[in-house]
């Protein structure tokens, strides 16, 4: 009698291990192929991009003839190499070739980026200095009840503005005296750091004024409640005294109460608890009316003109973005929120 097994027999441990190894090898080869193709495509794209940009006016101005010639020669050499010796090399080889080419081309790209975005950055810094100067002047001229800052705080802000203005003038003069193909003297990251320094000082003063004004308003409201409470207690005592005198009057005699006085007393005794109304000039509105350079919605903050936070966005996309560069200044939005709060009550 012969027995025939129709199902597939179980695999041995050695066969399972061999199958797994084969699948892993296939997956590894597939990943290597994708990585190699991606690296090759990146190199080819970079070569085409560099060759095209070198004929653009901005890139011609930001580079010398020797620099452009060296880049074109390397691009031509790599282009031939890709379809010959480099047709089937590892991804790491393509990446190394790309790194060599980028060392020549990236500095030119960065100079073009700096030159194109510098005017907006300078304008944003100038606008911030102008508004900060108005801020300082109005703080100095403020009446005593609106003196939120010490002389040291105001002098510190004033000195920062003066130093920043001098720094900008010196850097602009240096920038104008050198060729566009040279390393820039006035860089976006440096402008961003100056914007950040002004932003930190402004936010400190704005927050201090807001907190101080809110504290004064709270104290005034508490004093008002206390005064009304004392007036109410006085009214109660006066009403009790009048009632006592009336009960001691002669028997049979009718004493006509003073209607006007009684009505007034009743209003005091039975009146509802006073509601604390916010001042028509809230802490935010009063403060920014004091600093009318902000409450008047200046073009540099409220319209589509160059703004510091746009410059910071530009700086963030720089190839040489400094990790400590200023974050987008938020005191402009703080001002808008404060004014919006006052308009809506």
TrEMBL record:
A single GO BP annotation from the record?
Answer: endoplasmic reticulum unfolded protein response
Report biased composition (Low complexity) as residue ranges: 241-250
Keyword vocabulary terms for this entry = ATP-binding, Chaperone, Nucleotide-binding
Chain positions covered by the region annotation Disordered: 225-271
**Gene3D superfamilies attached to this UniProt entry:** 1.20.1270.10
Biased composition range(s): Basic and acidic residues: 225-240, 251-270
The keyword Chaperone appears for this protein: yes
GO MF terms held by the record: ATP binding; ATP-dependent protein folding chaperone
Give the superkingdom in one word. Eukaryota
Keyword check for Membrane = no
| Cellular component terms per the entry's GO annotation | endoplasmic reticulum chaperone complex
Q: Which family does it belong to?
A: Belongs to the heat shock protein 70 family.
Q: Which PANTHER family match?
A: HSC70CB, ISOFORM G-RELATED, HYPOXIA UP-REGULATED PROTEIN 1
Q: What is this protein called?
A: Hypoxia up-regulated protein 1
Source organism (scientific name) = Penaeus vannamei (Whiteleg shrimp)
Q: What is the lineage of its organism?
A: Eukaryota, Metazoa, Ecdysozoa, Arthropoda, Crustacea
């Amino acid at each position: 009698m012969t027995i025939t097994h129709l199902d597939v027999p179980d695999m041995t441990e050695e066969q399972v291990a061999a199958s797994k190894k084969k699948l892993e090898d296939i997956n590894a080869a597939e990943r290597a192929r994708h990585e190699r193709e991606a690296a090759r495509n990146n190199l080819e794209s970079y070569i085409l991009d560099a060759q095209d940009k070198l004929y653009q006016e901005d890139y011609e101005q930001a580079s010398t003839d020797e620099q452009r010639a060296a880049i074109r020669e390397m691009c031509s050499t790599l282009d031939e190499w890709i379809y010959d010796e480099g047709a089937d090399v590892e991804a790491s080889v393509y990446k190394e070739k790309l790194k060599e080419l980028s060392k020549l081309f990236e500095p030119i790209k960065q100079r073009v980026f700096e030159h194109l975005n510098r005017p907006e950055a300078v304008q944003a810094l100038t606008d911030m200095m102008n508004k900060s100067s108005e801020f300082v002047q109005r703080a100095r001229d403020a009446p005593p009840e609106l003196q939120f800052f010490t002389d040291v705080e105001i002098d510190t802000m004033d000195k920062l503005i003066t130093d920043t203005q001098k720094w900008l003038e010196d850097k602009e003069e240096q920038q104008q005296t050198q060729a566009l193909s040279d390393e820039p003297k006035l860089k976006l990251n440096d402008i961003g750091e100056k914007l950040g320094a002004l932003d930190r000082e402004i936010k400190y003063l704005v927050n201090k004024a807001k907190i101080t004004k809110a504290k004064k308003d709270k104290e005034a409201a508490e004093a008002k409640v206390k005064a009304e409470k004392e007036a109410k207690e006085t009214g109660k005592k006066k009403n009790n005294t009048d009632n006592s005198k009336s009960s001691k009057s002669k028997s049979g005699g009718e004493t006509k109460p003073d209607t006007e006085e009684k009505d007034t007393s009743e209003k005091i005794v039975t009146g509802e608890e006073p509601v604390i109304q916010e001042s028509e000039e809230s802490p935010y509105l009063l403060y920014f009316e004091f600093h009318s350079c902000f409450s008047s919605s200046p073009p540099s903050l409220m319209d589509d003109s160059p703004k510091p936070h746009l410059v910071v966005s530009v700086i963030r996309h720089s190839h040489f973005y400094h990790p400590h560069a200023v974050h987008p200044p938020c005191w402009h939005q703080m001002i808008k929120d404060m004014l919006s709060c006052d308009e809506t009550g």
